[in-house]
Write a structure and sequence with these properties.
The protein is of the alpha/beta class. It has a domain of 280 residues: Amidase signature (AS) domain (Amidase signature (AS) enzymes, Alpha-Beta Complex). It has 17 helices and 11 strands. An 8-stranded mixed beta sheet has the order 4-6-5-10-11-9-7-8, sandwiched between helices. Helix 5 runs parallel beside helix 6. It starts with 10 loop residues before the first helix and ends with a helix.
């Protein structure tokens, strides 16, 4: 393949070559296109390409941003790029093209990246695996029989496969951290309100959802957050500005931190031994680096929190379906959506205002208690997930569950599904996979998945680090210390290694 160094270098290193005139943006774009064409058939990460538009952009003057000329992919969810499809992973929007750029896309482009296409995502970004009926499943480059996670699974798989050095992602319940864990990447969920969501919406999922990127290096994540952070016009709120640029925190001494550590799940049940082992090894590494490590965790009622989160989610899905109908000018029908999505929307219509508000208030009161815990600790460490990357299809509703949802939808018996708790039963399978991440979307705290461990099957196992509200600085300092102590960028999935030997 042309320019073999491409697979090894992070985004800032590639941009530095462009700034020094050692390579052109067009050469970088062509190197990325060659890799997408060679590797995407095996993993189905990129679902829409913009190659000619990217080549044209690469030959024009580019912004003098930190990532000038670097190839980039957008998640096919929320990232509006004028004239290009935006499907949200749904048949309902497969022919829709926005006429404007979202503020986030404007900031990505102002940072100098060149967008080559869109990455796969589950329908409406609702689940932690990437298997939409519209495009089919995305596969993990470390083992193509397994999930790359979700909802930013296409972006995670593309970055892990070295198609691009970083890609866009969003995180409403772990959707940056989950694919980071599954794909052996660095994934930071910023503080609530840190990055823009305009101009069409003010907040997403009660403020739980926040946009950023998946990267291979810590410094790329920090530099991109510097480029995109800050309020946009009409933002309902925004995070306190940092003391200094986040990139300046990379390599800075974090000091001796007081770190709580736990493997007890917040919302699910069992935790795989590999995930516990990853945290145990991380605890020893942190102690070797001079930090104070104690076993402790905030106390939450996982069952009640799961019900509250699901109540919020059903209401949001019902509203999302109607909002997308207005955007596209189409009338939503059952056959336009996957049955699980449609059922969630119907359940959302059955939730009354009191139930919704009480669910939100319960989650807010939980966040208060978690905030009090962080008055004692600088950082909390958990597994990112309760399991290694699971086989594709294993988190889907069963055939019987889908059949029951179809029957309930046709016969308008959604109230019965609510009464018997079938949706909660399906959701429990999801929370058993992601028992650690949603809590910190609820609290709004910054959290990151760091690729510090690979199991005996050579599958990546991420470790989650959670910081105080608005304190990404400490996370970046600690992450760069860990990156130096236990580097991971040289690790390549078999899909890439077989093409670079």
């Amino acid at each position: 393949m042309r320019f073999p160094e491409y697979d090894q270098l992070d985004a800032l290193a590639l941009a530095d070559l462009v700034h020094r005139g050692e390579i052109t943006p067009l050469e970088l774009v062509d190197a990325a296109i060659e890799r997408i064409e060679a590797r995407n058939p095996a993993i189905n990460a990129v679902v829409h390409t913009m190659f000619e538009r990217a080549r044209e952009t690469a030959q024009k003057p580019l912004p003098e941003g930190p990532f000038k000329g670097v190839p980039f992919l957008l998640k096919d969810l929320m990232s509006l790029y004028a004239g290009e499809p935006l499907t949200y992973g749904s048949r309902f929007l497969k022919d829709w093209r926005p006429t404007i750029d979202s503020e986030l896309v404007k900031r990505y482009r102002a940072a100098g990246v060149i967008v080559l296409g869109k990455t796969n995502t589950p329908e409406l970004g609702l689940v932690p695996y990437t298997e939409p009926e519209l495009f089919g499943p995305t596969r993990n480059p470390w083992d193509t029989s397994r999930t790359p996670g979700g909802s930013s699974g296409g972006s995670g798989a593309a970055v892990a496969a070295r198609m691009v050095p970083m890609a866009g992602g969003g995180d409403g319940g772990g959707s940056i951290r989950i694919p980071a864990s599954c794909c052996g990447l660095f994934g930071l969920k910023p503080t609530r309100g840190r990055t823009p969501l305009g101009p069409l919406i003010g907040e997403s999922w009660e403020g739980f959802n926040i946009e950023h990127v998946l990267t291979r290096s810590v410094r790329d994540s920090a530099a991109m957050l510097d480029a995109i952070a800050g309020p946009d016009v009409g933002a309902p709120y925004f995070a306190p500005p940092p003391e200094r640029p986040f990139l300046e925190e990379v390599g800075r001494d974090p000091g001796r931190l007081r770190i709580a550590i736990t493997t007890t799940p917040f919302m699910g049940h069992d935790v795989h031994e590999d995930c516990k082992r990853a945290v145990a090894e991380t605890a020893r590494l942190l102690e070797d680096l001079g930090h104070i490590v104690e076993e402790a965790a905030p106390q939450v009622d996982g069952e009640a929190l799961s019900v509250a989160f699901l109540t919020m989610l059903t209401g949001q899905v019902a509203a999302d379906i109607q909002d997308l109908a207005e955007l596209s000018g189409r009338t939503p029908r059952r056959e336009d959506f996957e049955i699980a999505t449609w059922t969630l929307g119907l359940l959302g219509r059955a939730v009354n205002a009191e139930e919704y508000v009480r669910a939100v208030r319960y989650m807010q009161s939980t966040a208060r208690r978690v905030g009090a815990f962080f008055e004692q600790y600088d950082i909390l460490v958990t597994p990112t997930l309760a399991q290694p990357p699971v086989p594709i299809g294993s988190l889907q509703p069963t055939a019987l569950e889908k059949q029951l949802m179809n029957i309930a939808s046709r016969l308008r018996l959604v109230g019965l599904l609510k009464k018997v708790g079938m949706v909660e039963q399906v959701a429990a399978k999801t929370f058993d996979f992601i028992p650690y991440t949603p809590l910190f979307n609820i609290t709004g705290q910054p959290a990151m998945s760091v690729p510090l461990y690979w199991n005996a099957e050579n599958l990546p196992i991420g470790v989650q680090f959670v910081g105080r509200f608005a304190d990404e600085a400490t996370l970046f300092r600690l992450a760069s210390q860990l990156e130096q102590a236990r580097p991971w960028q040289h690790k390549m999935p078999p899909l890439v290694a077989s093409q670079t030997e």
